[in-house]
Amino acid sequence: MTRLGVLLWLRRQATGKSIVDVARHMGVTISKAREWEGGNDDPTRAETRKLARLYGCSEEQLFGSELIPEREAWKVLDILSAGELPRDL
Known about the structure:
- This protein is mostly helical.
- It has 6 helices and no strands.
- The longest helix is centred in the N-terminal third of the chain and has 13 residues, at 3-15.
C-alpha cells in the first residue's frame, strides 16, 4: 500500500465512482485499477491525466502535491497505518 494508492482510492470514494466505473473509463481491467489503488502499480503519465479528468481535479490534486483537506490527510494516515484499504460497499 502506498500513499498514492490511498489518494486514488479517496478520490474515487469522494466522487462516488465504483472501481468498475474507473476501469471502464480508463480502458483497463478492474484488476489494473485495483493495482493502482493497492499500490502494486502506478498509472502512466497519460493515465494520470485521464484519472484527473475523471475525478474533476488537477494532476497535482490527484496525487496530493497540493494541500489536501485535513480530514483527508488523516484518512490517508489511518489507512496507511492499517495497511489495507477499506472495502467498497
